[in-house]
Structure formats: structure tokens, C-alpha cells
Structure of Inosine-5'-monophosphate dehydrogenase:
Amino acid sequence: MNFTPPPTEDGFGAEKLFNQGYSYTYDDVIFLPHYIDFPTDAVQLDTRLSRNIPLSIPCVASPMDTVSESHMAVAMAALGGIAIIHSNTTPFGHAAMIRSAKSRRVPILSNPIFSSPSGRIASIDDFGDSQCILVTESGSVKSKLLGYVSKSDLMKLSDKEVKIYDYMVNSSVSAPCSSNLSEIGAFLEGKSRDFVPLVRDDEVVDVVTKEEVERIKGYPTLVAGSIGADGEWLIEMIKYVKKMYPELDVIGGNVVTVNQAANLIQAGVDGLRVGMGSGSICTTQEVCAVGRGQATAVYKVSSIASKSGVPVIADGGISYSGHIVKALVLGASTVMMGSFLAGSTEAPGAYSYLNGQRIKKYRGMGSLEAMTKGSDARYLGDTAKLKIAQGVVGAVADKGSVLKFRTYTMQAVKQGFQDLGASSLQSAHDLLRSRELRLEVRTGAAQVEGAVHGLVSYEKKSF
């Protein structure tokens, strides 16, 4: 039986919706579901921070002095994202934090394969991402490491019934878990192996690959900008840096308009940071009456940046996984988060208690407290005798480690992409620009209806 769809359309294409003269936030808009023909696990979130810097997940920790220092940078890198270390310190202090982050890593032994010496190669069904089989006395992780067999060696064997022990490299080809990346790199140099197990008390705690060591060395990035980024001094600085250091990726911002973006693209930026006054601790829109709703800003800037192959960072306004989905689908390649990561174990600062709740300080870089330490240059107030605050100082609840909650957040983002029928960021952008993906504006009542409502009490556990 043939079915003819009704002549009326659901929702609006993004171009029509965002050209009505309104400034929309993420909460103002909602996507309509689209046809699904793939599972959630098929969604790929790999992306680019800038022209030449790839990321496994589209998450960036904001360069704020209560969010991103070396501990956050190491954790975000371990997850496949990145942290931009704040510069609200001396140049020497800034360099020290970067060196510290570059020299360390979070031990992550993902999907390890263990075997006892008597195990047979035929018993190994799937290597997954593992580089080797780790051979321990009992065949478990909490046991003395005897050696390992590389994946490449085992794949060459035709007789799968031989014992793993017969092809094992002994445990002397390992390194102490206290080794830094420079020491591990020196250990691997000249070796025929592309990895080395790290041990503590004869037990394996991690495996580091040559690829990982090389990746840590690279990807130099400069984030240059101010809250009002369409200025002569910034454009001249971008041109100078690109001329003197052409191998360096330069991210410019913050911008919220097409004209601002065009000027920085013309100057040679490799990425654009989008957002003005949308952060939870930012008061720029109130104090200066200048800014733009973040959903509109991301869509408008991404529309022009995509034509030049310049990735967009949606900076600010992220409170939930749904906001991440909206930012990415509207054209961003990554989302930059402050409050979302503040309060985590890896964020700078000590914990304190307020009314029995464990909290950490979180402050805007436009707050007077932060500006007195040096961030006033970002708000073009470093030469002004009278400084005007464009941010506040507050506190956020303890969130635990980003290594835990970030994984669940990314799974929620994948489910959002699946509901939209987009298996990747690029497919989401294509659906949006082709007008296949439809949007609507939510009324205040619709926003209330879309949240938890009508209950006397409830417990909200995201994972």
C-alpha cells in the first residue's frame, strides 16, 4: 500500500528558524526526531579542535583558573578530549603547567587480555584494542607479570594450539610505573616493540604505546582572544603568530557574529571560539548589553566557518548532555565547558562544605577576583584604571572525577545523535544544512513540560 505524506511540514529548517530576528539559547530550541537505521554504538564522535588537531571526543575544558590546570589536562587527554590551560598566572607558571601536563598521563589499561603461561593461543577470541597478551602467574591482573606476547607475533602463527608461554617475551622488557613519558620514550627508542608494560611490585598497571608518546609531544595550540574579539590588536597578533610560527594552530575568539568570524578567518585562524555572555558565571550581557543567545551564535558562526574548513568551539551555556547535542548539531565541532567540569576532582582548588554539601569555588574570568590576577587583558581592561566586573565568584557541587562522569555523558550524547538519525558530527551537519533535520522553538510551557514536573519529590540519577 502506497502512502503519500501530508503536504504540511513538521518544524522548520535551521536557516529559516535562525533568521527571524530572535536570539535563541539552547533551551529555546528543540530538534524533531529523524529516521534511525543504526545502533547507538555506531555513533562516532571523533572531531577536530582546529584544522590540524584531531580529538576522539568533542569536549574541551575551558581556560579558567578554577577549571583547567595540569591535572584537568591529563584527565581530558586520557578521555580523548583536551583542556586549554588558563593563562591567569605568570608566563613561567603557565609554561610549568603545560610541561607538567605533557609529561604525565592517567594510567588506563583498557580491555586488557591476561593469560596464564599454560594458556593456548586458540583460547584468545578477540584482541580488541589490546596490543598484547599479558602473561601472569595466575592469568589475572592481581598476579606477578611473567611476560607478554605481542598481537603482531601471534597473528603470524598458524598453529593456534601452542602454549602462550612458548612465545612469551619475559618481564624484564617492562618499565616502572613511576616512569614519565620522556623516560618511556627513551626506553622504547630503538626497540622492536611498539609498547611497554608498566609495573608496580611486579604487577602490571598499564601499557604505554609509542603512538601515545609521540602524540603527547605534538599538537601545539595557541588560544588567542578577548571577549569582544573583532579588534585590530587581535587580528594583527593572529597574523603575526601565523607568520612567525606557521606550524602552530591558532584559535581565535570569542565571536558571535558572521562579520567577526569572517575577519578572524581572513586573518588566518585555525579554529573559532564562539560565545559571549552565555556562561553561568558571566555577566557580560547584563553589564554591557552586548552578546547573543548561544544557539543562534553557534549556528550563525558555524555557517560561515564551515565554508573555510575552520572548526568551531561552542564556548559556554552547557549544563546538560542535551546542550552538548544541540551545540554539535548546530555546527560546532567541539563544546567548551566550565561549570560542567568545575567541582570535579581534577579541577583546581580545595573542597569546602556549605550546609553539609561538598563544594569547590568556581569563578568567572571576568570577575574582579580573577581580573586582579591578570585575566583583565581578556576583557580589554588591563590598561583601565577602573575595572568593571563581567563575571561573578560562586561555588559548584562536588562532581567526582571527570574520568567517571564524562563516559556517561558521551553515551547520552550518542543516544541524542541516534534519535536525530546522525551517526557522526559530519552527518548531523549535513542533515541540518540540507533542511532534513527540523527544529522548533519551545514556549516556556513546553520547556516546563519537557523537564521533570508534577512530582512532590524525586531523585535524579544520571548514571
